[in-house]
Amino acid sequence: MEWIYEEDGIRSVDETGKLLAEAVMENLSNGEIDITHVFVDDSLRGQGIAGKVMEKVIGYLRENNKKAVASCSYANSWLMKNQEFCKDVISEDMLGSSACRIDGKH
Fold it and tell me: Domains in the chain, start-ordered, CATH in brackets?
């Protein structure tokens, strides 16, 4: 998969432009990033793609010297399960943020 990095997220689309996977991110006033939504197309579910999306997010955060919270429940859970791998980019405020704000879809 090829990834498109934009200010509001990281996306992968197919040759027709159909969205395959994405992480939506919001810049917060304190300089941190909120991961608000993680999406994987139904055709790719069960293949570990959401985890790959999160790995791309972690790389982006490290490259840009940013910390993150996650209001998306999937992203929050992934970060908590992978704290050892990504503790350098998890905000100290992380523990209070657990509900996805975009239609409850992950």
Answer: 4-96 (3.40.630.30)
